[in-house]
Amino acid sequence: MAKTNYSYQKRGREIEKQKKQEEKRQKKLNKKKEEEEEAKVSSPQLGDSESSSE
């Protein structure tokens, strides 16, 4: 019977962890970008309404 190659299995788990971490990082970046875009869109509107009321 063949001996199990544990280092191969370990490497596979490490690769999966790296992929998962990268996906999390991308999600965070996308979320941050969306929040910044929303802030940019809402900020000029607030600035215009404040200046017209003065």
Which structural class best describes the helix and strand composition?
mainly alpha
Q: What is the H-and-E element order? A: H
Task: Quickly count the helices.
Answer: 1
Low-confidence stretches: none
Please give the share of residues in helix.
over 70%
Mean pLDDT, to the nearest integer, reads 83
Determine the N-to-C terminus distance.
Answer: 85 Å
Shape: rod-shaped
Largest sheet entry:
none
SS elements, strand count: 0
* Rg result: 24 Å
Portion in strands: under 5%
What does this structure look like?
- This protein is an all-alpha fold.
- Helices cover 89% and strands 0% of the residues.
- The protein has one helix and no strands.
- It has one helix at 6-53.
- The longest helix has 48 residues, at 6-53.
- It is rod-shaped and about 70 Å long.
- The N and C termini lie far apart (85 Å).
- The relative contact order is 0.07.
State the main characteristics.
54 residues, mainly alpha, 1 helix
Summarize the structure.
The protein is mainly alpha-helical. The chain is about 90% helix and about 0% strand.
Write the SSE topology:
Layout (H helix, E strand, L loop, with lengths): L5 H48 L1
